Please model this.
Amino acid sequence: MVYMGSVGIYLRVDRKLLERFSKVAELLGMSRSEAIRRAMEMFITVNEKESMTSRMRGLVKSKLTLRELEEIYWVSK
Model:
């Protein structure tokens, strides 16, 4: 499947890491490209969430825990 506006990329990874990654992708019925796209999306989601939580923590100096701030963030999305 080709995605609209998609571009090719080249990266270097350890051979054993690639073999393990390919094996898991195959077990899940995914192409390596699809697995990499999903991994990239997950990486962005996790890191954007952490970034937003950090910004909220800087603004809200209260008794809220990190978990409570994350819940507020995800409910508001």
The chain has a mean pLDDT of 83.
